Structure formats: structure tokens, C-alpha cells
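Hi R.,

Here's the chain you asked about this morning:
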Amino acid sequence: MSETVNEQVEEKEVENGVHSFSNEKKWVKPEDPALLEQIEWFKDQKLGFMMHWGPYSQLGLVESWALSDHDADWSREDVDWETDPEVFKRQYFDLNKSFNPIRFQPEEWAELAYEGGFKYFLFTTKHHDGFCMWDTKTTDYKVTDPSCPFHTHKNADIVKHAFDAFRAKGLPIAAYFSKADWHTPTYWAPGMERGNHMWRGPSYDPEKNPELWEQFVHFTHEQMLELLTDYGRIEVLWLDAGWVSPRSKQDIRLGELVDKAREKQPWLLSADRLIGGPYENIITPEQAVPAKPMDVPWESCITMGSAFSFRYEDDYKPTRELIHLLIEVISKGGNLALNVAAQPDGRLPRGAIKRMKEMGAWLKVHGEAVYGTRMCAPYYTGNIGFTKKENTVFTFYMYENEEIPVKAEVYIPYTEKVNSVDLVGGAENLSFTQNEMGLTITLPESEIKDKSPIAHVFRIK
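And the predicted structure, written out as C-alpha cells:
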């Protein structure tokens, strides 16, 4: 394809992480009762544990993207040892030969996620670089191949052991899979019209090379069906690489594959990101929260640190900020997929563990206002968020930092008739007054302090 076509494929209108062709108005509601039930299950979960992890963790670079010459300006900013792009690509693709995460402890990951209040696990089985974190039969570019030193480890099939560990703790599975594959010669085929200058898409025009494209489609179907038949129950097939679509002449016949997978897993939700249509059951804003509430299934994927992949000495968001982020997301009707990247050796970073435990402690007290709730007007206004569960409304009154003193009275812009107000995790039957403008709640003396909590959470009936 020409460079002009490439740019047209890549540059789409985006507002707060939601694409114009993949938004609330264009969401297609499934007709299958099993999928409708699964959507309600998904909306109940609220907090997912997302992880990008692969051989690229050894570099501390952004995952995969540095392989694309078209994305070199922003993705290779930390590449300070190699200027020749072809040498760099060979070095990157050879990272499988040194990937040996001997401290990979899936049970500890699962325990930490469970303690942190996470309700499902979203894991990158394969990113755009094509390296498979499971024992696939389709390629040697995988974690269980003899070229990878980790292949002799008892947990070498990383996907299997990670999925099993999380299910054992009661955390269901969402499988991330990139529809693009920059390693397989049926996508980035050598000697084709793009030469050595690669972009996100294939190195050839699929319409002019239909046999080659059909080989890639077959390869992709085989890989996805392996994951969806040999690796236990999967709740969500989470598909990345939105440029791989009929819109850009890259039709992998996804509907055919998903329909086949649903013969064995009829509940399976498909998150065909940024595409719209019947196979984008979940809308997935990235590193953003929609400006307004959305009454469709959606999930913001946002990093705990500065990037989706592991970064050495990364800066993690404070726990207060993470809880406030979760409150904003659920108040607007969504889930938060919070990304934590594992280290090259397989452990979770200490900074991330600390925040996971702090989040878990907060959610243990206030979880009734989070899990299983739905959005409720007036939704989210500045430092105040709302959720509801049946006849109970929950209000989150957030404090930006702990230096803000807690006043005796809290004003909530809620005008529906109120009979009682409790402090979740604290005193019940609080005093309050109400008028046509809202609700003024009197806090108990024990809450009036110089240092503020992350939030006061009220149960309103």
C-alpha cells in the first residue's frame, strides 16, 4: 500500500480514547441471551488486572512498537545503542534467546491481584512482535521453543500457568491477542513492495497477494483457536491492532473465527478494538477516560506506571490517584483495566505491589460501593462520583490530597428523596439536610481531621 493509504488507515478521529467509529452510538447490542448475560457479568467486575509482558521487558522499552519504522520517531526514543534500524530489528527479534524469567511465580501474581481487589486477569498472549507466550504449534517463535532458555522451566507455558493460577483464586481470564504479527513471514513478508521500511500493516497489498494473505489468515485462526480451545475458559477475547480490519483491506474473517469459538465457549465476549460492529462487544479507551458516561460495556486500559511495558525505575501513580481514577471510571459506567508490567525476571515490581496492596485495603472496606454497581445520575461531577445497586445509591466524595482538612459538613449534589445516609465502613444514620439543590451531610466528629482520607463513601437510601 502507498504511504498515503497507510496514514489514512492509522489516523482516525479519537476523543478521550474512544474512536469515532467505535463509540456508544455505534455500539451493536448482541442478540444472543448468553452474550447479554455475559455483558452484565462484565459490568459487575469493575477492576481488571492487565499485564503486558514478553521478551521486550528486558529492554525496558515500549513493547513491539520500535520494530515499526513508521513509528520510529516516538518508539525508539530510548534506543541509544544502535542506529541501524535493520540491526536493531534483528536484535529485538533475538530477545527470545535471552528471555529467562526464572522468578516467574504465577501463584504470587494471582494472590497479589486477589488481595488488591482485582476481579479478572487480562494478559498479553502475543503482542505485535509475534512472540507467543504459550506452547503454540504454529511457530517456533514462542516461549517453549529450545531457542528460549526458559523452555526447560516447569512454568514454561506461561499462558497456561498464569491462567490456571488466576482461575484458582477465582479471577476469570481475558486473553489479549494482537491480530498483527510482525515476525511471521506471511505478514511482514521479505522482498515485498515495502522493502525494508516497515509499518504497522503487512509488507504487501493483500488484494494483490491473496494467497499470501490467506496463509496469514489461516495462521491467525489457528493461533486464536488454540487459545480458545486448549487453555480453559476464556471470558473475553481482547483483540489489539485495530488497523487489521476489512476497512484497511486486512480482513482476517474474524466473525468466522469467533462464531466457531462460541460453539465451545458460547459466553465469549469479543473486544475487537477500534473496529465497531458486532464483534466489538466492549469499547476500550486507552490511557483515557471518556468525558461523559457511556451506557454500553466499556473498559479503560490505563497504566499504573508510565507505560504498558516494564520500565526500569518507573514512576507509579499514587494510590490516591489510582482509587480516584477507578471511581471516575465506574461512575461513568465502565471498568478499569489497570496495567502492571512484570520485570524481566518474572516478579512484579515493589512499587506496583505496594499500590496493589493499598488499593486492596481500601476496596476491602468500600467494595460494596464499587463491585456489582451501575452508574447513577448525576454520575461524576468534579470530586464527586455516584454509583447505585438496586435501591441504594453510593456517593464518593474525593479529596485531592491528604493536606485538605475534613470539614464538618459535606455537600452532595443529589436531589432525589433521601431517607438515610451511612458512611460506608463507618458510622450509620448520619445527620443530613436536603433541599432542591442537594444534600448536606454532617460527618461524625471522629472524621473531622486535618488530614483527609482518599474519599468519604456514603450509602444513601
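The two ends are 60 Å apart (CA to CA).

Let me know if you need anything else.
M.
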